[in-house]
Amino acid sequence: MKPKRILSAVIAFAISVTALTSCGSTSHPDLYAYDEDAPSLYEAFSQWFKVGTAMNTSDLVEGSEEMEILIKQYNVFTLENESKPDAMHPSEDVYNFDALDKLVEFANEYDKTVRGHVLVWHSQCPDWFFYDDDGNTVSADVLVERMKEHITTIVSHYKGEVDVWDVVNETLGDNGGLRDSMWYQIIGDYDGDGDKYDYIEIAFTTAHEADPDARLIINDYNLEWSEDRTITMYMMVKSMLEEGIPIDGIGLQMHIDIDFDVETCKNNVEILMKLKEIDPDFVIEITELDLSCFSWSDQSTEVELTDEFVEMFDSLYSDIFEMFIEFSEAGYLDSVVMWGYNDGSTWLNSYPVSGRTNHPLLIDEDYKLKSAYWSLIDLAQAKSS
Ligand code: XIL
């Protein structure tokens, strides 16, 4: 990071602390995320964990507000879509490295960390992996070879440059148990040892061979509230670690909403962290955090941001980051990545209800710092004093 930027961030943090002590915790200056005087989210939490965001290479325009925000506020980056299998390896002989190359170059220049998302997934994965030229499903041998080639080529290309890989994403079904994906169906119990998650084992082993220093993550959703999914994940990873499969951690996506329960999440993380008995360095990472303003079953497209609602939303964000601090202090966690950096471009404006206006992040659609952002700065300040 450039010394000038460090200095301005330190000054900004001091300003926010002064504002806090002189005006009370609810009064904060009206600032944009790229303002010189704005604090830095990642610096505020640096004693506990890195703070990152998903982004797109279109954000990396020198001198733009978008790029200034990324540089100032976050120190871990992942591409929202451009490094998924359909983007990076659309057909057998075509690899597109340009987008991730661009992110790596940016990260090297500004001393940031890169998460590679994602090598193996059932979604946003082209059909050519699973079918031959006649449209028939390929054999397990063919799919294993294709997967190995895919992983080896990509991970080797970024050896020493991409620090963390989501090796496999969403291996569990909605209600626990293994997802019935094409990977699972075709590769199945490849080594004949009785379990059917061999595609996961082969993926991790292959990624580790290509870059032994990269942190390798198995990433999934709803682990923060579903005990069934948590236990399935725990059992599966435990058995793989006991077999010596090189998995370094579990990614909790954390696409959560206003019904989020901190205590349930803590319980589930305690279950997962029993894996430290096998590998003391085993971690969790928060990989895709956003906090929807709508309950899951709510189909509406607008939410009224009353003072009461905003207060509830901000204090929930603060409780969540306080929980992350606890996880960090217990040695569980060193990275929290948000799924986007402003409400204007969040995927939650079109998922799971299209045409929605959601407000799940810390910076609004005009790039102004939201009160939720300030509640986190206040938290970091209170916890570090
Ligand atoms: C989402 C992107 O944000 C969207 O732009 C895209 O249309 C679909 O995928 N879990 C993941 C992410 O692991 O890759 C997904 O990203 C969100 C859910």
Polypeptide structure, described:
There is one protein chain. The protein is α/β, with parallel strands linked by helices and 385 residues long. Helix content is 39%, strand content 14%. The protein has 12 helices and 9 strands. It has helices spanning 3-23, 41-44, 65-73, 85-88, 98-110, 140-157, 182-187, 198-210, 227-242, 262-272, 307-329, 371-384, and strands at residues 50-55, 76-79, 113-120, 164-169, 215-220, 249-252, 255-257, 283-292, 333-338. An 8-stranded parallel beta barrel has the order 1-2-3-4-5-6-8-9, surrounded by 4 helices. Strand 5, helix 9 and strand 6 (249-252) form a beta-alpha-beta unit. It starts with a helix and ends with a helix. Residues 1-11 and 15-25 have low confidence and may be disordered. (3S,4R)-3-hydroxy-2-oxopiperidin-4-yl beta-D-xylopyranoside (XIL) is lined by residues 80-81, 169, 253, 288, 347. (3S,4R)-3-hydroxy-2-oxopiperidin-4-yl beta-D-xylopyranoside binds next to loops.
